[in-house]
Amino acid sequence: MRIIRLPHTVGLFLWLVIVPAALFGLGLWQAERASETATQSKEQSQELEATLAEIRKIAATDPMTMLTFQTEAGQQTVSAMVAVSQIEAALKQAQEDLEISSIRRPLTWGTMGGAILAFASGMFGLATAAVSGSRARRSQEQLIASFGRLRVILPFILAALIIGFCAGVVCAAVFEAVSMGLWADFSSGSARLFVLALGLAGLAAYSAFLALRGLKNVFALFTSQPMDISGRRVEEADAPGLFRFVRDLADRQEAVQPDTVIVGLTKGFFVTESEMRLWPEKEIIRGRTLYLPAPYLDLLDEPEVAAIIGHELAHFSGKDTLYSQRFTPIYAGLWRSLTALQSGDGGSFVLYPAAMLGFHALQQFDHAVNHWSRIREFEADRSGARSSSTVGAASALVRTGLIAPALDHVFSLAADGVLAADDSEPALDVVAETSELVRVNGWPDPVSLLEDRQPHPTDTHPPTIQRIQAMGLTVDERLLNLATRAPKPAGLTFACGLFSDWKALCLQLSGDYLEQVRNLRTARRQALEALAAAAPGETILYNNVRPMIWTMAIVAAIFAGFGLMVTVFAAEIGFAHDQSARTLVSGIAAAGVVLCSLYALYLHKSAGQPLLILTPAELRASTLDGPVAWTDIDAHQVHASNRFALRLWLAPSASLPAKKRRALYSKIDRKQRLVTIGAMGIRGMKAAEFSALVSRYHDAAHAQRELSQSAGGGASAAV
Questions:
Q1: Chain centroid offset of residue 707 CA
Q2: Is residue 341, in this structure, part of any structural domain at all?
Q3: In the chain, fewer beta carbons within 10 Å around the N or the C end?
Q4: Is the omega angle on the peptide bond into residue 240 within 30 degrees of 0, that is, cis?
Q5: Domain shared by 450 and 583, yes or no
Q6: Residues 456 and 490 placed together within one structural domain of the fold
Q7: 436 vs 83: which has the higher pLDDT
């Protein structure tokens, strides 16, 4: 079934204008009905009171006086004594209708008031978002200030929107439920509608409670956590050339210098003033931090490194790092929180318009965020170019984009080497291997990478080609040849002159990375071993047919009761004069008793046969013609709403079993590779317990297979 998704603007108009207008119109209609009913009930009550007083006088003198009344069914003649009791009953009903009318009238104000509140809060939210977004585009300071104000106001707007919708829906539903008391023919169908209306009101109120609670969590004060990064802090004694180089660049740009310099292997170049947790030493770093990736440093020359570090220092001068520290985490966190709130289970139908408005408000800032982000990066690029040269800055942009694929390839090779090696300390230099890979194989085609964006842990960059064009250059053959020149020989790179012992630092960083890979592998292996060891032995499970047997017994008793009634008590229930009808009903009742008894007997006999046999290697079902290996199952699900079923999604390489002829509730979907094993339940086990048991078998089998493959791969590598 195809789901039609409305455009964002149409959805906003629908939820914030059309729906409140419809709710307000419903309130007006209910108010008109309540007013008419109240007027009619009041007039009827007054007329009946006057009539009752006159009839009581007549009944007091002659109770048997015959009186004729005009009713909806025509003229009716009754004695004065009977007329008194009938009028008293009618008067009581009219007074009850009047009480119901008095209850209904305030509910209409609740419906209309909720609609007005929803509409007003929606319009105010749209206006606030538009004004805040417009101000945010004036300057970076206005962006932060406007977002701060919106973050304070928006929770109250969304809460008012939710309360308005909920109040309107609850009052409208309760109004209709109460109105059923005015119906003259209140049948079983009316009772179901009454329960439905009250259920809708209760659901709306409960959903609003969940939604407001969720909003509280979304807009709670955001506490940023330290950013995790792997690397080593370097002091001036470790890198005297680097510190002189950075100081010289800072003096030329009149920029502030970093408090800390960290050298690592990944994430590209960046600066930050956010709190960082440095691994593997777990050291907390505060203040202005400059991060340098060693594999990049080894493949760049002096003009390129100067342009990049000059670019990063410009972010300190432009207070961009403070912006990233104060605004970016809160902005990104609010996006994630709203997304999580919208995708949650509770309060979805009353929360939807509020979530749409919240996303719309944030989207107004998206344009400003992207706008100022581009301006910050372009200005930093120009500062970096002034520290070096425009060509050097452009070459650095292209070359850093080419380094990332080579580094990823070396990381993959290094991880494979660790997995195949023993626990001895590896003498692998990731930095040297990356440079050597480029020396031997050359660079990839740079043109295909020009639309890529430079990596950054907390911010975004424009595409490389736009940054080059913003510096007034075009990507020509000369620039590409410069960016794709061959690396310098090992030991002669610009990075070697910046550090006291460049080789030792690279080996230390490589050792940290490989140790992290080993630790992850060990943790993974331990988790797999725990899963494999948790597999139970053989488990035999039986179909839970007892509830159905009792159901058949009750249904058979009902059929038998009908049969006895039409045969023994035929006269009392009006069947004595119709022999054919009595015979037909008796025959149907007897057939029902027989069928229910036969089905109950069949279930009783099948109860002793296993439904499922679970072993560490496979699953065997009485409804399938063969076993299913756990390792052939990609995913599984226990379905227990309308009918109990175990669903198994098999791998593309697995062979599908066939179901047996009498497996009524099981089926094989070859297109989706889905095997459904139907049952009435698992005897002695709830659905959640059964699902957990199946998961243990499934996870254990897959864990055992991965352990075996790892052992086999290790043995092959050792050979």
A1: 33
A2: no
A3: N
A4: no
A5: no
A6: yes
A7: 436
Question: For the whole model, what pTM was predicted?
Answer: 0.62
Q: Identify whether the C-beta of residue 383 lies closer than 8 Å to the C-beta of residue 314.
A: yes
The vertex-658 CA angle with 656 and 641, nearest 5°, equals 90
Q: What is the total count of domains within the chain?
A: 4
Residues 519, 561: one domain? no
DSSP bridge pairs for 277: 228, 284
- In the three-class reduction of DSSP (H, G, I as helix; E, B as strand; rest coil), residue 406 is classed as helix
CA dist 515 and 425 (Å) reads 9
Average pLDDT over residues 312-328: 67
407-421: pLDDT as tens digits: 988 888 877 765 444
Task: List phi, psi (to 5°) of 228.
Answer: -80, 135
Shared-domain flag, residues 31 and 82 = yes
Last residue of some domain: 606, 623, 643?
606
Is the residue at 399 inside a domain?
A: yes
Tell which phi-psi region holds residue 255, choosing left (phi > 0), alpha (psi between -120 and 50) or beta: beta
pLDDT (tens digit per residue) in 116-131: 999 999 999 999 988 8
Do 90 and 52 meet the contact criterion of CB atoms below 8 Å apart?
no
468 by DSSP, 3-state: which? helix
> Which residue, 197, 218, 239, sits at the end of a domain?
218
Is 364 among the domain residues? Answer: no
From 59-73, 171-185, 275-289, 499-513, the region with the lowest mean pLDDT: 171-185
- 3-state class (DSSP) for residue 500: coil
| Helix residue spans in 574-686 (DSSP H) | 579-606
Task: Specify the amino acid at residue 622.
Answer: S
- Over the chain, what is the mean pLDDT? 80
Using 50, 70 and 90 to split pLDDT, how confident is the model at 282? confident
Q: What is the DSSP string of 603-621?
A: HHHHTTSEEEEE-SSEEEE
Work out the average pLDDT over 496-515: 93
684 torsion bin: left (phi>0), alpha (psi -120 to 50), beta (else): left
Q: Please give the pLDDT value at position 293.
A: 95
Is 66 a member of any domain?
A: yes
| Domain span holding position 710 | 609-718
Q: What value does the CA radius of gyration of the chain take, rounded to a whole number of Å?
A: 39
Q: DSSP strand E in 40-112: where?
A: 66-71, 74-79
For residue 684, give Cα distances in angstroms to 356, 543, 612.
Answer: 46, 10, 14
- Read off the CATH number of the domain in which 708 is found: 2.30.29
Phi (first) and psi of residue 231, to 5 degrees: 165, -170
Domain match, 555 and 658 both: no
Provide the token pair at 688: 């959640």
Closest CA to 133 of 358, 330, 354, 368: 368
Question: How big is the chain, counted in residues?
Answer: 719
> Is the domain of 80 the same as that of 175?
yes
- Give yes or no: residues 408 and 436 share one domain: yes
**Is the pLDDT at 184 greater than 80, yes or no?**
no
For tokens 């794709």, the residue is: 484
Identify which of 612, 610, 613, 650 has the alpha carbon closest to the alpha carbon of residue 630.
Answer: 650
- Res. 506 pLDDT band, cuts 50 70 90: very high
E strand or H helix at 629: strand 628-629
Q: Are residues 483 and 461 in the same domain?
A: yes
For range 587-598, the mean pLDDT: 89
Could you count the other beta carbons within 10 Å of the beta carbon of residue 118?
31
Q: What is the mean pLDDT of residues 615-625?
A: 91
Pairing of strands 276-279, 227-230: parallel
